[in-house]
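In response to the reviewer comment on reproducibility (Comment 2.3), we provide here a single inverse folding case reported in full, input and output, so that an independent group could reproduce the run without further information from us. The structure tokens appear first.
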């Protein structure tokens, strides 16, 4: 039973540079959502958003904490990383913009589609960053299928 007040909360830690466990957290999130019977179309959106957020930490930051919070109305993903931050958020949000290295591109990353895809799959998306410190993301997906999306 999900309580009105606090909802259901899960806490994950992501380590920068750890390509071997990349995708692990978005898989756990998917499993948690399946277990509590969240609609599959919502699960797909949450899985895409969390995967892209997780991969950006693996690729660009040192570490992050990701909190999944589910209330009867909404699913929230809140990520805070420690890393280089993003100098120009407008530029980073553009489809195709990427600073991925050749090595990352060889692994299939670096299309510059991660952040735009998070935005596309969220009902609400907030990003803020302090260069030299880190980046924060707040992603909200409404659980009511008659919602905005
Ligand atoms: N957590 C982060 N910390 C620092 N820089 C970031 C972070 N997330 C994104 N960026 C910057 O924003 C750019 C765009 O990110 P986005 O996820 O859209 O594309 P990408 O990661 O380069 O490629 P793709 O996600 O398609 O594999 C990145 O190339 C990087 O410069
Ligand atoms: Mg990315």
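Designed residues, in position order:
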């Amino acid at each position: 039973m999900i309580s009105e007040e606090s909802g259901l909360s899960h806490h994950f830690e992501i380590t920068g540079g750890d390509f071997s466990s990349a995708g692990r957290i978005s898989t756990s999130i998917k499993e948690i959502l399946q277990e509590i019977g969240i609609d599959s179309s919502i699960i797909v959106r949450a899985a895409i958003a969390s995967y892209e957020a997780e991969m950006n930490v693996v690729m660009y930051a040192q570490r992050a904490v990701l909190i999944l919070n589910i209330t009867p109305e909404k699913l929230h993903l809140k990520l805070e990383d420690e890393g280089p931050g993003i100098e120009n958020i407008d530029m980073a949000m553009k489809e195709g913009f990427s600073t991925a290295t050749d090595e990352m591109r060889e692994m299939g990353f670096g299309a510059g589609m991660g952040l735009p895809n998070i935005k596309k799959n969220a009902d609400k998306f907030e990003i803020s960053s302090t260069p030299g410190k880190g980046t924060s993301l707040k992603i909200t997906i409404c659980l009511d299928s008659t919602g905005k999306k």
